[in-house]
Amino acid sequence: MQCYLKDVMTTIDKYFTLDEAAALLPWVRDTLVHANTELLALYDEMVLAKRLYALKYADRLPGQEEQQQALELKIQRFEQTIDRWTARFKEQGIIVRNLQKGIIDFPYRTKDKDLLYLVWRKGDDGILYFYEANESARGRRPIVLLPD
User: Fold this and answer.
1) What is the helix (H) or strand (E) element at residue 119, kind and residue range?
2) What secondary structure letter does DSSP report for 123?
3) The pLDDT of residue 54
4) CA 120 to CA 91: how far, in whole Å?
5) Do the Cβ atoms of 110 and 116 come closer than 8 Å?
6) Is 114:146 a contact under the CB 8 Å cutoff?
7) Residues facing residue 119 across a β-bridge
8) Which DSSP category does 4 fall into?
9) Which parts of the chain sit beneath pLDDT 70?
10) What is the signed CA dihedral for 120, 126, 129, 132, rounded to 10 degrees?
11) What is the pLDDT of residue 53?
């Protein structure tokens, strides 16, 4: 199950200090647990619906259309759930890059007004990395190199 943010080009409503971002980590951890629990259940329902549809489609059995509609509704519900959880993070000013992996960005501005992202990933003890807005998260650097 991969839950990437659909549109990573999002408007930034808030900029965080390192302390502000760190203070939100308990909320982030808790919210990710709830989001992933709900999404995993919906994902399992989608997989089952896909398998049932595939069985009926392969044998050209009656009820195929109803099964396809049920599958489409489950997919739509899954996508809406991702959007709802992502919106909860956005309300806090937080950017979700991947719900399943728990990849979270906190927008940060330097004194020179350069945009950076403080990065937290599920399992990290704290905010350990950052990257520049014009880079990908693969170019992340240790937080000790964070400019003012």
Assistant:
1) strand 115-121
2) T
3) 65
4) 18
5) yes
6) no
7) 105, 129
8) B
9) 1-10, 48-49, 51-65, 67
10) 60
11) 63
- The residue to which tokens 């980590």 are assigned: 25
Amino acid identity, residue 6? K
Longest distance between any two alpha carbons in the chain, whole Å: 66
Amino acid, res. 79: E
With contact defined as beta carbons under 8 Å apart, do 121 and 25 qualify? no
CA dist., res. 6 & res. 80, Å (int):
12
Contacts of 75 (CB under 8 A, 6+ apart): 46
CA distance linking residue 33 with residue 37, whole number of Å: 6
Query: What are the extents of the domains in the chain?
Result: 18-145
Residue pLDDT, tens place only, 70-97: 778 878 888 898 899 999 999 999 999 9
Radius of gyration of the chain (CA): 19
Identify the three-state secondary structure at position 135: coil
The per-residue pLDDT of the chain, averaged, comes to 83
How many angstroms separate the CA atoms of 85 and 79, rounded?
10
